[in-house]
Amino acid sequence: xxxxxxxxxxxxxxxxxxxxxxxxxxxxxxxxxxxxxxxxxxxxxxxxxxxxxxxxxxxxxxxxxxxxxxxxxxxxxxxxxxxxxxxxxxxxxxxxxxxxxxxxxxxxxxxxxxxxxxxxxxxxxxxxxxxxxxxxxxxxxxxxxxxx
Length: 148
Description:
Shape: elongated
Largest sheet: none
Number of strands: 0
Radius of gyration: 38 Å
Order of helices and strands: HHH
């Protein structure tokens, strides 16, 4: 197998892998959208709860221990939503990076294949020849004689 054939085979493999990544992107985007919506809902609920508590009991120092503890534990729902949002975001970023890498590899293979084709084309003009040496005429300049 020649290098050109090997590059063409690799390009075919990379194209199929790129197509599979492109097919995996829409479900990943929808998963991120779902996780973002769940996180926004949990965060809004937590902000509403804290706003209500701040208006009801303006001084957190005067809030009873059990009530304050429950208020602080209500943040766990937001933290869980953030963690649930992190995995789809990371998966989407990974797919996006993989797509960029595959596209770059395919572009580089195309460049290499194009340059391989160009180097095998016949020259449109003759190859530059070596410059011929110019004959040197001997110096025949006479110097003026000194005045008598």
